[in-house]
Batch of 3 targets.
Target 1
Amino acid sequence: MKGGRLVAVLLLLAGAAGAQPQGKRNAVSHKPFALASSGVVVQYERYLAERWSALAGLGARRAAREDFRSVTLSFVSEGRFWLSLRDWASDYRGMAGPYLSVAADAARTSVTYVPTDRDVGAAWRIQESLRFGNRFVIWNLQEITPAASLDVIHDFDEQGRLAPGTRTTLGLDFTVGWVF
């Protein structure tokens, strides 16, 4: 019985993925504000089915000063539902205009004491988000996407020495990239 359900789901997904969208099916973008904090995030988005797209990306950031060094590596993922498939400002049709999304990001930060090259520890951050955003497409190529989100952030120490924490916050996001 489980095998039959799995086959049905796979057939539905294959049929949905075959839906032909208007406009371009791919986007590559980065988060320019990450550069201000010695970091970079690059992400790729693919149009999957009518009104649905998926996004995945990688990021890295270095921080800490003086006697310490820290490195954060991150993975970002997001599923988007496009509300209109049309940019109201430029009339571009495709992965554009307003959207709702669910995102999950994971990041690991490690800290090193530089004089002795000793590993101080590492921590993880898992972030779940509900987002509302809008993609503007300029010249049928350049994309600019601001978004607002409600985030739940979970922080925990890899060794279990510090108490884990969870908090809710409002967030803003901004990406710049290209559709193709």
Target 2
Amino acid sequence: MSSIKKAVLAACAAGLISTLVRSAAVGESGKRILKLIVNMMIVIALIKPLLGGDFSDLVDVLQVRELDSQAGSSEHSFDDYYIASAELSTRSEVEKTMREKGIDYSSVVITCEIDEYDLIVISRVKIIVNRKEEIAKAKAFTDEIFPTVAVEILSEDENESKRAENASEESNIG
């Protein structure tokens, strides 16, 4: 019985809101769009309580969006989140495939960025293999899946010498 009461109250609330919204609408196309939205809202308001739910999940979604907007500059944090997510998932898939192909590696670094069309693209790949013999296998693998991306493949020994060079250059500058 309480679900029927909730459905009736939700329909009444939706009806009041729709009356206020319709009176505020300007122009015929705006009224049509608002009628569609309001009618969908009424249907959802009627069905949702009967299915055993309430609107708490909608409130949770709205609270999460509010928290995201309070977190700082939302555009950059939003972009950074999706870039980091793309880098992580791509790295995981590359590592999984390299293990399947028997390539002995110590680390994989994927760098993504957002291009001029607002698409996330892979801009750089760096793979460090454990032995120099693995470089050829890793190169063949990356040429196959990253044909247009700058790929750097180093052995563990080359990576150590490169780090030592960078450290000595930084000490000379400082």
Target 3
Amino acid sequence: MADKNKGGAKGFIPGFVSDKLVIGFLDFTSKLQRPKEDLIELHYEYNKDIWKTSKNKCMKAYKQKWYIEKQSELKGLLYGKGNQRKDKRYLKGRNLTAAENSCTVIAVYNALVSLCHGKVLVDLPDLIKTFEKRGIAYGGYYGTSVKAMMRFFENNKIVTEMYIGKMIDDDVIDDIDRCFDTFVMTAYNNKHDITDMIHTVCITKEKEGYVIHNEDGGKTYSSLKDAVRGFREGRGRVMMISGLGRPQYLE
């Protein structure tokens, strides 16, 4: 929990508002400002072409599993319903692209790579299309609903064990560490400042250790607990964590 004496107004939401409420609010905004079907299809065809030439710039291999590690290289991919006024308000004038808002979609992609032992059953443009239809929050300016991510896993018969907010203690983290090899986590980037936003990542057990993908540039940890508590060098705070298990049809 954030130190409630720090951060002032910026620390109010991380320090006082329940994580369950914040996650629920983001899910509510996924029902607002959704891209229209023709725009989703336009993005999909465009993204397929861009992804062919851009994916090698953002990936890193662990054994034979290629994970997306550099979201910043996805400036060419479109995700969401752009608006100049909102670009100025939320992105300091930058255009709305997958480089800004696709961390949850990337976490799903990386989790599937881990669960499928390196096989890519659903490519990134397809996932973007899926979440533009249902899950993108406030047209993309609030990223993607965590609940939509979990619904995606459950609808695809992927075993989940999810914990939110105060439910998450060291015993819970150790328990899911023993039961799973693939995890997704949503966390505040800065537990004292909501304006630093929220980030969703996939964490996997690799030969090198526990890796937080699309985050640390390949830094490894000795345990899941160390990865969670060490997120953003301890400045972050976990809001949600879930273990993910392979469905029988992938065996």
